[in-house]
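Table 4 source record.
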Amino acid sequence: MPDIRQPRRNSDKNRDRREPSQASPRRRKRPQGVIPTIKYYVTRARKKLLRSPLVPLIGGLVLLVAIVSLLIWVFTNKNAWDVKVDDKNVATIAKSKTITDSTWIYNNAVAKLEADLGAKVQVSQKVTLTPVHKSKKNLLDPEVAISKVYKEFSESEFSVEASEIFVNNVSIATVKNLETANK
C-alpha cells in the first residue's frame, strides 16, 4: 500500500505494473572498474548529435547555400570581353589566356591596316576591353573582332607615314615610302 504522505508519481505506476523479472529499459552504463576512453565519449556524443532533429535542417541549409552560391557565380561570372573602340562597342569575345589586354587586338588591327596600305600607320583611336557576362552563343571569334576593329580604324582618320620629294624647296610629289622616292 502506498504511503499517503508522499504523492504518487508516474514512475511508481509503471513500477507497480512491471513484473520483477523484467529489466528496466534504461540505457547501458559502462561497466564498473573500466576507465572510459576518448572513443567512448566521442561515440556517445556522435550518437546523441545524430539523433538530434536539427541535423537534417542544418544539412539542408548548407546544401541550399551551396546551390544558391553556385547559381549566383554562374550568372554573374565575367566570361567575356567587350571590345570597344573609343567607347563604341564593336564586338564581344570569349575570355582566354592569350588575350589578356587590348594591345593584342590593337596591334593586329594596325598590322592588318599597314599591310593593306603598304606604309606605317598611326591610329588615334583607343581599343579597350571590358569584362562582361554574356551567353556563349553571342560571343565572336577573336579574328572576327580584329576585322571589326580594322573596319573601325579604316573608316576613321589615321596618319600614314609617307615620303615627300622636294626639288629646290618645292614639294613635287608625295609617295608611300622612301624606296619609292629614291627611284
